[in-house]
Amino acid sequence: MQIRPEAQTKARMENLAVVMVETLYPENIGSAARACANFGVEELILVRPKNLNEEKMRAMATRAGLPVLEKMKVYQDLEEALAPFGYVVGTTARLGRQRKVYETIREAAPRLAALSQENRIALLFGNEKWGLTNEDLYHCHTVVTIPTTEKASLNVSQAVVIVLYEIFCQGVEVPLPKPRLATIEELEPMYRLLKETLEAIDYVPHDNVVLWMTTIRRFLSRLDLTAQEVRIVQGFCRNLLWHLKQKGKREAQDGPPEGTSRD
After folding, report:
1. Residue 221: which domain range?
2. 28-46 tens-digit pLDDT
3. 197/235 same-domain check
4. Angle, to 10 degrees, between the axis of helix 105-115 and the axis of helix 156-168?
5. Of 168, 201, 224, which one is at a domain's C-terminal end?
6. CATH of residue 141
């Protein structure tokens, strides 16, 4: 089943379900429920779980994940659990020839987002020790992996977070507030004060002041300074200049160091 998705199709996360096979630890079930809640997935399915300690599951689910945990379904047969779904995605860290893994979750995410528009999708996760078996993967339309270093080992609930995050990010524009950058009117006094400070500590080469200050301005321009940051730089320069002047006054009052001449 192949679909050529349009660019940046937003996934319908409510059409996704997390299916965990033979999970060993209830804490991972609770953490998976929390992950589902964070990314808008309402359905968590367990197949032959080994431990359903409610207290431990609820502790890791926190308040956000409790609604997912309370609607959770438990099956003894994987084929029965997957029956309502139109597309099944297996996950694995093992990349042997028989497992036929050809893409990462990031590569698969645009296609899964497109498929989620009209299909229910099951995301299949194996248990903590051996993951999904070849028999489990037999039911999958595709199998994806999460790239890690050779010595790394992702916890199953961490894998759930990463897979849901990659799918969720398809076509999502997060309206994060952008800071207001300093205006030229705010920047120019800062540059003048900075030049005065650099000259006071004899850091500006006398042969080409303009070129030197242009280099500094270009460097600071790449930082996208805000008005507040400009005030911080000005405050630093004023403070440094004040201390330099105080030091000069003290030296003038104390006279030259012993053993030196004014001549």
Report:
1. 184-254
2. 999 999 999 999 999 999 9
3. yes
4. 60
5. 168
6. 3.40.1280.10
Number of structural domains (the chain) is 2
Question: Do 116 and 40 fall within a single domain?
Answer: yes
77, 200, 244, 252 from 257: Cα distances, Å? 91, 21, 18, 11
> Is there a single domain that holds both residue 214 and residue 162?
no
Bridge partners (DSSP) listed for residue 16 = 121
Residue 143: strand pairing partners: 90
The CA angle 257-260-263, to the nearest 5 degrees, is: 125
Residues 27 and 155 in one domain: yes
* Residue 150 token pair: 């050779």
pLDDT for position 175: 66
Looking at the fold, whether 21 and 70 belong to one and the same domain comes out as: yes
Give the predicted TM-score (pTM) of the model: 0.70
Residues 6+ apart with CB under 8 A from 197: 237, 240, 241
Contact 64, 34 (CB under 8 A): yes
